[in-house]
């Protein structure tokens, strides 16, 4: 296994230093994911920008969490599932939503379930989602904008999930209590 450095302000490439400072300011710490991504300043910069764009999408906090955690769970990300469990708690997302996502059990309402189903179709079908699945998503009250915002959220998660798989990023201390393993 390749050993990746968890960079800080002293070891990071110069172009990553202001990005790590931005992470420190936003989160009160430099998340391990950001510390790894600092090796490639363009990746960390892109990740931070896409994160902000997705947070400012038309999705509410519950819907944002559904997209994030659906992708995290599908991609079996040991780091992002616990991290987004803590983030969901901080955002005030109902624990029932978080637990249903983590355990791949039914969500508390049909609209959120439709969002999870569509997100899974985007991931599993590599964007080649059939017309019936797209129509089911639209019939659940979502829009064409939301279709594209799922792609935006998925893009963010590809960057983080794949980085964590390659680097085996250790779960940050605040999120260790939310440790997770994909069910059988």
Describe this structure in words.
With 184 residues, this protein is an all-alpha fold. The chain has a domain at 60-178: AhpD-like. It is built from 9 helices and no strands. It has helices at 17-27, 32-37, 41-55, 61-74, 80-91, 95-103, 110-124, 131-139, 144-167. Helix 4 runs parallel beside helix 6, helix 4 runs parallel beside helix 7 (110-124) and helix 7 (110-124) runs antiparallel to helix 8 (131-139). The longest helix has 24 residues, at 144-167. The radius of gyration is 16 Å and the shape is globular. The two termini are 25 Å apart.
Structural key phrases:
globular; mainly alpha; 184 residues; 62% helix; single chain; AhpD-like
Topology:
Blueprint: H1 17-27, H2 32-37, H3 41-55, H4 61-74, H5 80-91, H6 95-103, H7 110-124, H8 131-139, H9 144-167
Roughly how many Å apart are the termini? Answer: 25 Å
How much strand?
under 5%
| Helix/sheet category | mainly alpha
CATH architecture of the domain at 60-178: Up-down Bundle
CATH class of the domain at 60-178: Mainly Alpha
Rg: 16 Å
**Dominant shape:** globular
* Average pLDDT: 97
Helix content: 55-70%
Number of strands: 0
CATH third-tier fold name of the domain at 60-178: AhpD-like
Short structural description:
The chain has 184 residues and is mainly α.
């Amino acid at each position: 296994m390749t050993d990746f450095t968890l960079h800080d302000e002293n070891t990071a490439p110069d172009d990553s230093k202001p990005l790590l400072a931005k992470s420190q300011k936003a989160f009160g710490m430099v998340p391990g994911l950001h510390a790894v991504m600092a090796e490639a300043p363009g990746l960390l910069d892109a990740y931070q920008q896409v994160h902000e764009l997705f947070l400012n999408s038309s999705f509410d906090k519950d819907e944002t969490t559904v997209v994030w955690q659906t992708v995290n769970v599908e991609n079996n990300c040991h780091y992002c599932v616990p991290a987004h469990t803590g983030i969901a708690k901080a955002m005030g997302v109902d624990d029932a939503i978080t637990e249903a996502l983590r355990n791949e059990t039914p969500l508390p309402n049909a609209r959120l379930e439709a969002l999870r189903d569509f997100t899974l179709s985007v991931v599993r079908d590599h964007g080649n989602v059939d017309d019936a699945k797209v129509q089911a998503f639209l019939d659940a009250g979502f829009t064409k904008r939301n279709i594209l915002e799922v792609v935006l959220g998925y893009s963010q998660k590809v960057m983080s999930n794949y980085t964590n798989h390659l680097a085996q990023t250790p779960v940050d201390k605040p999120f260790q209590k939310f440790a997770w393993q994909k069910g059988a």
